[in-house]
Model the fold of this input.
Amino acid sequence: MNDNKYYVYILCSQKYGTLYVGITIDIAKRVAIHKSGLVPGFTKQYSVNKLVYFEIHEDKEEALKREKTLKKWRRDWKINLIERDNPQWLDLYQELLASI
Done:
């Protein structure tokens, strides 16, 4: 049995700014990497480093499917998803660290 949890997450540059959807098994480490800006790529280029939404999945295939679905969503759908659970667009990273 696999005890891993899979996290599908959304980062932003600022409220209503650039969005990034990703997946990881170590969300604390992955978001820290985005925040550090040490790895070249999209999130560094556009300063996308605020964790504004995440989901936890027990099944890898389910998580991969959800990530692909969210990536295909229209921007306004993603914004509505974020605002449903995080209307202030708070960076959830510190809260996340305290809960894991």
